[in-house]
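Long-time lurker, first post. I've been practising inverse folding by hand and with some scripts of my own, and I keep getting stuck on stretches where the structure tokens seem ambiguous. Below is the full token string for one chain I'm working on. Before anyone asks, I'm not after the true native sequence, just a reasonable design that respects the backbone. If someone could post their per-position residues I'd love to compare against what I wrote down in my notebook.
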């Protein structure tokens, strides 16, 4: 639409991207996958019995085999621990091509979104499927700002946690408790009520996160301000105190906003799948999002950037890198290289390029000569030139740089995953809404090999 905040053709960097995006937007209007006449045949070599299974084509990426009726036709279940080759749902929100290093949100490349958009505009895109017009963006921003306050009783509830409680423990508890304050009578079948839930969660997560940080510091809570941007508001609530004025650096705010954009959604990952599965029972949406927060807390998911920072601290100086790399390559050593490689990406993580630029901008703004950045730059150089890393496709991912940025801003390591949760909430709630609207909606019930 030419009324969008920027023109779609100007937004894409090539005719290929325009064509790809047009195909994507055209297809998102469809409610179902593309059914074809193609089939796959599974033969049980024990009995010689064969089963014909339909193949569905998506807009982009691999086709899928529908195994819904496999058991009724053959008495067999599929076995796929960790869902390594299983499409658990149909989605029109995010697409990843790990081999090519491509990440699209509703058809838009993350690189262009990070350059020309902001986090709230991306939230709108994830929720509604199209970029907002200028009036729609202004209205959406106003709605979010008017939902940033939390019930005063939430403060009393939060104060019941020990001061040394992990911020993620606080976040899990408080987000789940929102169902008592706002969600007791939510009708999840009502599209308008679902959207109100989305607005509340996107708006209140930064407030709750900042409150958990202030609680750990023994400092008074700072109320949100409607005159600040989304990222500025979070930074203000986190670092401001009543005794002096706190001015948010535009460079720091922009870096925080981009970091949120890069973590907003990432297809069917562990926490997003958890939200969908919890929501499939008809559970209260605040409880479903709390389940996603709990899943994100795991070090293999949301805690990866903290692990990178710990690794760089352990290495110490650039001169120690050769010995560290030797240990990484030695199978007899138990040394792991954190922040490199990805279960999905087999190429350079497109988010890492953006985060690398933000890292330089932040450190330049703060005048920081960070030893960890020097370590990171050298590790990146080695990974992109050493045959060992190239062969194993161990490219730097977004976690490699985000920990350095967060640390430079002043976010303590135990808050890293909390900021991740703030960012990912827009993706979680968009997937929850999409699952509620799906004609194939049903409670999730995996089978097992006993």
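-- Answer (accepted) --
I ran through it position by position. Result:
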């Amino acid at each position: 639409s030419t009324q969008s905040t920027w023109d779609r053709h100007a937004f894409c960097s090539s005719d290929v991207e325009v064509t790809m995006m047009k195909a994507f937007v055209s297809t998102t209007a469809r409610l179902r996958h593309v059914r074809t006449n193609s089939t796959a045949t599974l033969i049980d070599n024990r009995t010689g019995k064969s089963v014909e299974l339909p193949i569905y084509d998506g807009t982009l990426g691999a086709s899928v085999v529908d195994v819904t009726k496999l058991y009724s036709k053959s008495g067999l279940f599929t076995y796929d621990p960790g869902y390594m080759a299983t499409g658990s749902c149909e989605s029109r929100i995010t697409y990843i091509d790990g081999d090519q290093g491509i990440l699209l949100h509703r058809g838009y490349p993350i690189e262009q979104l990070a350059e020309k958009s902001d986090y709230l505009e991306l939230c709108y895109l994830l929720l509604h499927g199209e970029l907002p017009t200028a009036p729609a963006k202004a209205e959406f921003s106003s709605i979010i700002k008017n939902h940033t306050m939390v019930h005063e009783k939430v403060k009393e509830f939060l104060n019941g946690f020990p001061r040394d409680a992990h911020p993620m423990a606080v976040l899990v508890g408080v987000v789940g408790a929102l169902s008592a304050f706002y969600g007791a009578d939510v009708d999840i079948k009502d599209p308008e009520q679902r959207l109100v839930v989305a607005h509340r969660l996107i708006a209140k997560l930064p407030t709750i996160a900042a409150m958990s940080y202030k609680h750990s510091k023994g400092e008074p809570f700072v109320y949100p301000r409607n005159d600040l941007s989304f990222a500025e508001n979070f930074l203000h609530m986190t670092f401001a105190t009543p005794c002096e004025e706190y001015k948010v650096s535009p460079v720091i705010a922009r870096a925080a906003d981009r970091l949120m954009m890069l973590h907003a959604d990432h297809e069917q990952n562990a926490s997003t799948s958890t939200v969908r599965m919890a929501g499939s029972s008809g559970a209260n949406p605040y409880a479903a999002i709390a389940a996603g927060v709990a899943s994100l807390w795991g070090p293999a998911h949301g805690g990866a950037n903290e692990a990178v920072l710990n690794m760089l601290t352990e290495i110490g100086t650039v001169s120690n890198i050769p010995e560290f790399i030797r240990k990484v390559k030695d199978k007899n050593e138990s040394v792991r290289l954190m922040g490199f490689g990805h279960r999905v990406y087999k190429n350079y993580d497109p988010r890492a390029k953006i985060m690398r630029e933000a890292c330089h901008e932040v450190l330049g703004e703060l005048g920081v000569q960070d030893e960890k950045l020097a370590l990171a730059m050298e590790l990146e150089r080695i990974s992109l030139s050493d045959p060992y890393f190239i062969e194993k496709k161990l490219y730097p991912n977004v976690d490699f740089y985000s920990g350095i940025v967060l640390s430079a801003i002043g976010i303590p390591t135990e808050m890293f995953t909390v900021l991740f949760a703030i960012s990912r909430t827009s993706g979680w709630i968009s997937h929850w809404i999409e699952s509620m609207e799906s004609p194939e909606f049903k409670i999730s019930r995996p089978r097992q090999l006993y």
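A couple of notes from the structure itself: The chain is about 50% helix and 5% strand. Confidence is low (pLDDT under 50) at residues 1-31. Happy to go over any region you disagree with.
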